[in-house]
């Protein structure tokens, strides 16, 4: 059973419920000036709150996980990092992420998972020593199930079961979905007032720009551009491909269609953000149907029937278990008796092994792997890191995304110098996993036995090789083994059988029978 990705509530830095120190005077709001920093995309809603002094912020929420995002802007003076920050959840310190030397937006500063479901407060304390600005962007938390989300921005992962993908869509690196097939579609039913579609542009896939379109509630499609990448550009993350206009609050359907080809930049989906995002329940009753039962007192009867069925099922299960145990014990006892009655096997008589001659090739071609490149597993970290521990995981990716494709290694045969015979490869490798037939040195002899050569086979090989060497050392005028078709090499070997010693032969004297007078 697959696990449903958590649905996060996204809180922008402009939210009025965020408490900034100094009544906000310690902080300054910024919009747009850092949109082009790094390759992790612009800040959420293009806004930031920054401070160049010791300051703090806090936010109250109800949920089970929380994380803080900002624009990383470090200054390193002889190992002294400026600015620094500390995070606390309910006054308990949460370790921050490790310092990162490059400027990046959408950077995880700290976070806490596995919280008890209920109200919590997260606080960020900032220390600035040399006026290096600390930039806060947004926070995300997994809400309590009972929390009303009609005024919230809800983030849905691309693997959320509410999303339906048509033919041509597939997973991209384990953290996103993509398509490169013309007219492939994806759709989602949602409740809210708008949807924003976020993906990324992978440098390993085709770069030429193309288009796609979206339609709301069966209306006319709206086209949007997938701009691709320059030839030498790194992968760009957290790209908002489109945002729908503001809709009337209620239920809507979004259908997205890709108009490119396999030779143009693909359409990717990392996550959606639904504004005022009340998500339809996955277990809602189908329209036009209702639970069975009579409103006039059928409840108690139904409960009684259910109890009887449960008790009957338990009793039946116990009976089946008892029968199975009895059958098992009976079979074990019967098998034991049969084994006691079975005669003891006598050792088979020993026979003298007959002589078999097997020609051995004087030179065996060797199989050698060509230069290989192991497949690169896409190490993709999505927008919302998962918390396997109580601390926020370290951000690990920067610059170009690793390759998506796996490369199957090829094998080459080194031809024999004497016979020129080649053998088909049986040492194929995939990725960095080598088949059991490949040797540690990367060479494989197709005819190499799996067990050590016996003395008999070794002697045959040595004798045959010796005969072949003696033939090649004879004078040119003499007939060779290859020229005389009637000549062949035959080597006999003592079978090991010995006749019993013969007794000394004696002469036989024949004597006529003795006759008696009649």
TrEMBL record:
What segment(s) does the record annotate as region Disordered? 280-301, 362-518
Record field: compositional bias (Basic and acidic residues): 490-507
Which keywords appear in this protein's UniProt record, sorted alphabetically? Membrane, Transmembrane, Transmembrane helix
Task: Say which species the protein is native to.
Answer: Galerina marginata (strain CBS 339.88)
Which CDD domains does the UniProt entry name for this protein? TM_EGFR-like (cd12087)
Q: What is the designated name of this protein?
A: Uncharacterized protein
Q: Where is the composition biased (Low complexity)?
A: 280-300, 411-425
Transmembrane domains' residue ranges: 308-331
Q: Which branch of life, at top level?
A: Eukaryota
User: Which residue intervals are annotated with compositional bias (Polar residues) in the record?
Assistant: 362-410, 426-451, 467-488
């Amino acid at each position: 059973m697959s696990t449903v990705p958590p649905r996060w509530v996204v809180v922008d830095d402009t939210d009025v419920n965020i408490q900034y120190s100094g009544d906000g005077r310690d902080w300054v709001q910024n919009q747009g000036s850092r949109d082009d920093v790094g390759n992790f995309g612009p800040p959420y809603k293009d806004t930031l709150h920054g401070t160049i002094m010791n300051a703090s912020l806090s936010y109250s929420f109800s949920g089970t996980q929380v994380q803080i995002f900002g624009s990383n802007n470090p200054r390193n003076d002889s190992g002294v990092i400026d600015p620094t920050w500390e995070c606390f959840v309910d006054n308990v310190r949460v370790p921050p992420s490790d310092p990162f030397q490059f400027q990046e937006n959408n950077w995880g500063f700290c976070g806490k998972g596995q919280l008890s479901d209920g109200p919590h407060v997260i606080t960020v304390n900032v220390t600035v020593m040399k006026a290096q600005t600390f930039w806060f962007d947004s926070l995300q938390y997994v809400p309590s199930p009972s929390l009303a989300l009609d005024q919230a921005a809800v983030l849905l992962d691309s693997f959320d079961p509410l999303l339906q993908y048509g033919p041509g869509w597939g997973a991209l690196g384990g953290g996103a979905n993509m398509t490169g097939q013309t007219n492939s579609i994806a759709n989602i039913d949602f409740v809210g007032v708008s949807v924003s579609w976020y993906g990324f542009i992978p440098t390993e896939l085709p770069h030429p720009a193309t288009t796609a379109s979206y339609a709301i509630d069966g209306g006319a499609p709206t086209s949007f551009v997938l701009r691709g990448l320059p030839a030498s550009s790194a992968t760009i993350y957290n790209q908002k491909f489109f945002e729908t206009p503001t809709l009337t609050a209620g239920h809507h359907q979004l259908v997205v269609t890709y108009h490119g080809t396999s030779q143009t930049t693909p359409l990717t989906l990392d996550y959606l953000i639904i504004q005022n995002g009340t998500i339809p329940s996955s277990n809602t009753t189908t329209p036009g149907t209702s639970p069975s039962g009579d409103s006039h007192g059928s409840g108690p009867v139904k409960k009684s029937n259910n109890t009887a069925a449960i008790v009957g099922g338990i009793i039946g299960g116990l009976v089946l278990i008892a029968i199975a145990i009895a059958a098992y014990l009976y079979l074990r006892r019967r098998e034991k008796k049969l084994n006691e009655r079975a005669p003891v096997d006598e050792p088979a008589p020993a026979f003298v092994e007959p002589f078999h001659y097997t020609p051995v090739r004087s030179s065996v071609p060797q199989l050698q792997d060509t230069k290989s490149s192991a497949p690169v597993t896409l190490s993709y970290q999505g927008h919302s890191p998962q918390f396997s521990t109580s601390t926020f995981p370290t951000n690990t990716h920067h610059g170009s995304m690793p390759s998506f494709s796996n490369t199957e290694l090829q094998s080459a045969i080194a031809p024999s110098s004497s016979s020129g015979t080649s053998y088909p490869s049986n040492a194929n490798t995939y990725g960095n996993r080598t088949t059991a037939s490949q040797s540690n040195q990367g060479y494989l002899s197709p005819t190499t036995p799996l067990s050590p050569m016996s003395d008999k086979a070794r002697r045959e090989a040595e004798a045959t090789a010796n005969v072949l060497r003696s033939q090649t050392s004879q004078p040119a005028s003499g007939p060779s083994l290859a020229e005389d078709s009637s000549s062949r090499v035959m080597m006999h070997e003592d079978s090991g059988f010995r006749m019993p010693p013969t007794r000394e032969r004696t002469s036989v004297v024949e004597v006529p029978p003795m006759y008696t007078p009649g």
